[in-house]
Amino acid sequence: MNRRLFWKIFLPFWLAQAVLLGALYLRIQHRISSEHPWWIQPERREMPVLADYAAKVYEEQGQTGLSQLLDSLSLQKRSKYWLVDANGHELSGQPIPEHVLRDASAAEKSEGLHHSFEANVLAASTATTQGHYVLIAELVPPKLSERVPGDILWTLKLGTILSALICFLIAHYLSKPIERLRDATHELARGNLDIRAGDNLGNRRDEIADLVRDFDSMAGELRTLIQSERNLLSGVSHELRSPIARIRLALTLARDADDVERSEMLDRIEQDTIQLDSMLEQILTVARLESGQHKPRFERLSLNDIVDDVLHDANFEAAATDATIAFQGESDIQVNGDAGLLRSAVENLVRNAIFYSGRGGKVEVRLSQEDGVALISVRDNGPGVPENALSLMFKPFYRVDDSRGTTTGGMGLGLAIVRNAVLAHGGNVSAKNVAPHGLEVELRVPILPPSQPTHSDAYRLPQGLR
Q: To 10 degrees, the CA torsion angle through 387, 388, 394, 396?
């Protein structure tokens, strides 16, 4: 696998550390080599004695003896010695470079040492009864490893290795989640909607971890959305198939039936057609609200009148299952809203509550106001819903039990209509389970003050619905 990001992180970090350690190494070397380097101090201390001895050997043994002495003092590629007289003539017969003579002259003026990065020149004068002599030595610096103390050198080496290890761990720490995120993205593109990239993040808290968790959240939302679409295809095909099949059957029977039976078949067809129309209307309503195509017509409304109308119709439906509806409300709660949307929202909640309360169930509806907000609460004594479904139940086509059909809950569009209708009025909707059993759904819509003028822009659609 081409880990480009890993190397982009690792190499700059490590090279920066290596350059820093290298610069420190050279600085130490330069510091040690400057002005009075330690490695030439023994020769420097011996120079006056060696000068006297070399002059004595020259005077007693001549050029040959002096040459042998200086050769014995010299080390190959490290040091070389010359002896010159007062006129600057070299006495051992070895040629002396001009730059060494210049450095020796400078050394005599600076305590017998002239330092440079390439070499160091020592000079020591001596005088006898026969003349004046100068012993010159050129000392080439040893290798850097020999000039830098061993403990410092090992510290620098270990520091380089340790910095490489640290940079490796940092690069791995930063790039591994992104690598997992890329793999998860590929899996998601292949259709694996259950893939998650943050399973091994632990308690990591940084921007990369946030990115991975956002991806997981996006993958979850995408999975829910695709599942909703699948539910739509499955639900719509199932829901439409039954009335269409009944209509076809009724038409077939009506052709051969007498007048009385034909009338019954036509009534059946009419009922199924109404059901189809209602189902399609729900689908179109959700689609328009979600896309922002439906523009609410705002006007001053009395929530009391809307709730009263809904409960008046709902009592007939509740009577079929011996359910009861109890209402408690404050009077004269005015809002700026769309009567159709608000009625649809309240009606869906009340009908759901009646259905899930079951035979002999009890539904409680409460209308109140608090802190400038109208509150409509619908509570049933049904089985409630799983806690993890409370935040999902208002999404289109979501059903707590995917196996439910028309007799057990419809297509999952009613609560989606409720949510979008309330959002269009600048409000919100929430649900919670209640003890010992049951579900309570609360709608909150801003109240319109009596003195506030009514116009269609009093509440704008939320950004997500435009």
A: -150
Q: Tens of pLDDT along 132-153? A: 999 999 887 766 555 555 556 6
CATH number of 299-465: 3.30.565.10
- Domain 38-140 is found in CATH 3.10.110: no
φ/ψ (deg, to 5) at 127? -135, 140
Q: How remote is the C-alpha of 119 from its chain's centroid?
A: 57
* Alpha-carbon span 375 to 392, nearest angstrom: 21
Residue-wise pLDDT for 317-330, tens only, equals 888 889 999 999 88
DSSP 8-state symbol, 456 = T
Of 227, 276, 278, nearest in space to 399 by CA: 227
Whether the CB-CB separation of 186 and 219 falls below 8 Å is answered with no
Per-residue pLDDT tens over the stretch 68-118: 998 888 887 778 899 998 888 888 888 888 888 888 888 888 778 877 656
Q: What is the pTM of this model?
A: 0.47
CATH class of the region 203-291: mainly alpha
Measured distance CA(333)–CA(339) in Å, rounded: 14
Q: Quick one: DSSP state of residue 123?
A: E
pLDDT over 50 at 461, yes or no: no
In the chain, where the domains are located: 38-140, 203-291, 299-465
H helices then E strands: how many in the chain?
10, 11
